[in-house]
Amino acid sequence: MPPDPRLLVLYNGRCRLCRAFAWSLARLDRGRRMRLVPFADAEAEAALAVLPAAERYAAFHTRAGGRLRSATAAAREVLLCLPAGRAAVALGLHRAYPLIARHRRALGRLVPRLPVTRTPPR
């Protein structure tokens, strides 16, 4: 079976804001260009094994073409998979990620409790 060409999005399923983020991405990704996998999943653990433990939970990550990206670079990759994503990147919206990540606990209180979202492999 050929490798899955979709962007692999690895996120913290224990973080309330991160779960809301993944839930929203699943609904916005009309072209099914992404796979959402929480950190606790064996596939995520294998993909993140190259990172020190402290870096794994500091941000969300993406993997495409064997390349792992984190934080702002990962946010850019995600935006490019969404409708109007190129415009969002041109406006620099991916650069807001560090600010959001710094305040994820407080922001998490503002979003509903949602289940962990996982997009199955093809």
Characterise this structure.
With 122 residues, the protein is of the alpha+beta class. It has one domain. The chain is built from seven helices and four strands, in the order E-H-E-H-H-E-E-H-H-H-H. Strands 2-1-3-4 form a four-stranded mixed beta sheet, with helices on both faces. Helix 1 links the parallel strand 1 and strand 2. It is globular, with a radius of gyration of 14 Å. The mean pLDDT is 94.
Q: Helix and strand layout, with pairings?
A:
Blueprint (H helix, E strand, L loop, with lengths): L6 E5 L4 H13 L5 E5 L3 H7 L4 H4 L4 E4 L2 E4 H10 L4 H6 L6 H6 L1 H5 L14
Parallel strand pairs: 1-2
Antiparallel strand pairs: 1-3, 3-4
Global mean pLDDT: 94
Tell me about the largest β-sheet. Answer: 4 strands, mixed
Low-confidence segments, ≥5 residues, pLDDT <50? Answer: none
Provide the gyration radius in Å: 14 Å
- Overall shape: globular
Number of helices: 7
Portion in helices: 40-55%
Q: How much of the sequence is in beta strands?
A: 5-15%
Q: Which structural category fits the helices and strands? A: alpha+beta
- Side-by-side strand order of the widest sheet: 2-1-3-4
How many structurally independent domains? Answer: 1
